[in-house]
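fold-stage: in
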Amino acid sequence: MTSFGFPTLSRSLVGRRTWPFFFDLLIAVAGLACFYGIIQVTHYWIGPPQPSINISLSPRALPVYAFYSIVRIFLAYILSLVFAVGYGYTAAYSPRLEGIMIAALDVLQSIPVLSFLPAVMLAMVALFPTHQIGVEMGAILLIFTGQVWNMAFSFYSSIKSIPRELREATAIYRFSAWQRFWQMELPYSAIGLIWNSMVSVAGGWFFLTACEMFTLGDRDFRLAGLGSYLQTAASQGGSINLAATIYGIVTVLAIIILTDQLAWRPLIAWSDKFKFEQVESADRTKSPVLEILQQSAFLHGIQRRTLQPMSEMLYRRMALIRKERQERKAALTPEKEQTRTVMNWVLGILLSVILGVIAIIAAGRAMMMLRSISISEVLHVLAGAGATLLRVDAALLIAALWTIPAGVAIGFHPKLARIAQPVAQIAASFPATVIFPLIIIGLTQIHMGLGIGSIALMLLGTQWYVLFNVIAGAMAIPSDLREVASLFRFGRLQRWTTVILPGIFPYLITGMVTASGGAWNASIIAEYYHLKDKTYTTLGLGAEISQASDHGQYALLLLSTVVMALMVVTINRLLWRRLYRLAETRYKLEG
């Protein structure tokens, strides 16, 4: 297993005559373009707020709109990555907090974006009342809420499933926590984290229209971007502007394809070296972009002269700090050690009391808001919760039936992956809200209500969580296990029951958990949708949340969100937590 870091630069490749100057020139141009983009975005964000932006449907406006949307999704992804790693790490190594943190994560990933919208947007605008950055940060945080949760689940699950022999090796060599993180934990989780990053960015595109163009009571928050462009094209003057919609869709597809070739494929090829196996696979994923980076003399020089000395200096410094800490701890007398323990205990109780008081005050104010809700509205919300639960379960079942065999086939065959992975990435990243009008019109033509049709709409936004996690799980199965199965001539059923399903089980559970949260989240669009001058709706909790947000009924919005959170917590306690525990014990890859 290779330590985590920048792509390893092959000296044999650098030594070849493969136009290293040309590659360095390409990297320099890309760096200058990124620098120029940062300057332009900074200039726009620190400018005065623009509360009402007229969205132009001219194709000439698409490059600028695409640039702004890419920046929002990229910043939301970086924020999601940092949060996911920190949250997953803390949950995995804190036995007292683990249960609470995983339950909270399950609740948060299931709460729809529109439930976060009022608090997030009003808070950001209040923090930056005289600059455009307030509205921009609100949109970025809303996209963050649609990206982060499955990444956090993936990192947590990967850490919990690290083989025992790897942990013993780091203990024998006395790795510090920092060394263990960079050289074992992050490399081991790289494959799952990259594939979940792909589906997270896809989730950002899915909710882009809701995050760039929305109303909150009598206030109109609208941002220039691809999401607002597509939403405006779909409802211009009460009808669909077909030409503008096609222009927007083509632009989205072009961005997705470029992202796949310039970012995801190099990362997938690079992460292949982190696979935990004793026999190296003969068939590896390849990427021309990664080969260009590996042949760059400029990057090689930066790594050799800057990154390597800095990392070595950092490790030496951390080793000295660890040694000094151990010496101070050894020098403590029993009385001082007892005093220190008591102080930590008192501080913990004090912090718990403060958090408890805040929670009680917040709960009291929430109860005051809920007093205005009638019994009939409560019963209607509960009936909607039951209907949405049935749709979520149906969407998960349908997703599992096709994504498990498809994901295993893609993960086991790199040649198939080279074709199927970009197609799956395009399909997952494509904003399903763009084709919602066509689906709804089709359902109306065949006299099928939105009650059943909403399952198909949920499926469009949730099945990719299962597929991408199954692909990651199949790719992470060591090649030697597959070769043993072939050597002993396992039948198809035996191969699935003894190698494939146990191997992908931790990844499958992560995919199912995040798909479940995605289905609850997608219910806000699947059960309540505006088309032209008509609103299509059905009984469901998502419809209740969307309608309450539309009409500024904050008490009903709070009640619907609380009911959804309680249902998610119950399912987490009864089902997902037990399956996670099973994945950590019985289906853990170790000798």
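fold-stage: in (second)
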Amino acid sequence: MTETETTTIIRDVPLSKLVPSAKNVRRTGREAGLEELAASIAAHGLLQSLSVRPVLDADGAETGKFSVTGGGRRLAALKLLAKRKQIAKIAPIPVIVNGGNEEEVSLAENVVREPLHPADQFEAFKRLADEHGFGAEEIAARFGVTPHVVRQRLRLGAVSPRLMQVYRDGGLTLDQLMAFAVSEDHARQEQVFDNLSWNKEPQIIRRMMTESHIRANDRRAVFVGVDAYRQAGGNVLIDLFSEDGGGYFKDGALLDRLALEKLEGIAAEVRAEGWKWAQAFLDFPHAHGLRRVYPQPVPLLLEDQARLDAVQAEYDALSLEYESAEELPDEVDAKFGALEAEIERLSERQQVYEADALARGGVFVVLNHDGAARIERGFIRPEDEAPAPEAAPETESEGYAVTEDGEIIENGNEGTEVTPDAEPEDEDADDGKPLSDVLVRDLTAHRTLGLRLALGEQPDIALIAVAHTLAVQTFYGYTEANVLDIRPSSAVLATHADGIEDTAAGKALADRHAAWAARMPRDVADLWGFIVGLDPASFMGLFAHCAALTVNAVKLPWERKPRTQETADKLASALGLDMTAHWSATVRSYLGRVTKAHILAAVREAVSDEAAERLSGLKKQAMAEAAEQLLAGTGWLPPVMRTPERDDRLAEEPQERDSQEGSDGEAVPVAAE
């Protein structure tokens, strides 16, 4: 019999007598999917017999063993079941004993078969569930996959028949089909499909499918929680195909109401501290226009101070003991947490709001970007401000009056109307009349000119005057006490960058502001003396803080202010600003908000071309997450955040500038003592 002639015999052979054939053409992926195949054989039996040939000895006699030329993966799955004692090692296995070329038979078995189209697989899984009552766990066990994979296939099998046919015809990719399957609403699926533009990226489809829904990682969803939302009658749409396995809250109005109700509950608890009012908002009302007061430092009671000292000493000792430990034991970590909480609790008692502030002031309770409640205390409404001194009657003219004895009286002849520059009818009757408004304007204009001239010659007093003007408006919120016509403006950065107030830099700035606010005198009339009494370092610190709050280098799309950005670069250069201390490229801050090309460019610049090349084939979310790991610790920044080279002319050390000579040749002091 020639090699091209074949004979076929069907028989059973003990599993122990079957061995892999070296002539099997499958070289790649032999181990792939063995678990699934073994589970299927265990549930459904061996649906396709193995192709075998007798193993001969050196003399050409049969040895009783058979080499498997077709079905090497099935043999491996059977051996796996035998190893697990799910079948006997000598279990009879149906085989087809083939003659002919061994390698040709193996090739024919693997080449001529047509794999099942995924759409047919998805719909078949769906029928198993719908028509036979199989649950996801049972189907998973019978096919050797996870229940999650089964749920994905069931969801895909439930896609609109129209879209499924488009997928069969090659008009949709599997990723696009998965994006449509985020919802089981056939009408919505077909509506989105009909409205697709040239951009058919899966993320675009998913966004259109869920545009009226709220993602499960939204701050409102995190704050309310899925259980409370469902108890209130809300439905959650689970996205089986998202990278994070998240979902969507379908009723945004319900979610907003639940979040606001929970915030209002917290506000009621905070108001019990003694505040006049407490209001809850989803977003902080930055344009509230209210003055803010801060807690004042007070000494602790002796027993509280003793407790704080003891807890701090215990914390320091524990820190020293585990200073070199790479990982803390659970009980030690818990101990650190308890000590930190106690230190924070006792430290809060060192800052107390005055009774008047509590009686007049209120609290805003808002929702943070991370889904936690944020409590902002100490806001005074205009109607709750302390009554101002009664204003003089409008008929009273400002200025000075002189009596017949030559005595100067401020605002003389109260209640007497005076016509500016009117000549008195009787000179003797003019005694006690105030100076006219026009004359007062004339005289004070000359005084203003004198002040300008003198202030320009005394830089130390000019610094005090500017610091006073800035501080009045920064900490007291009004300008009536100003003599310098300077009005600082401070842009609210939270309106441009969500969550910026909760960053380490945002909290550091807020803490610095609160520390200065606590030191401010209660009455603005005492502010000048307070500033004059500061030591030089404290004075310059206050001056710098007030000036810093006016910095605005935000670039808005509708503004054309290129010189503002140029000046910002010069300021950053002079300060030696290093934004790597305050910001890093993460999925949330940057990588998840730019294109794949931008991600690869960042990795290429910060790491290497090879690293970027390794990421190039990934999907957007996976690429962003991998890039975050690669960029960590590299100090990479987007070009718009980078500081130009330091300009030594603008970056002189303060002590060098302090000793430079003024225009009159004398050294200019920092501030008056």
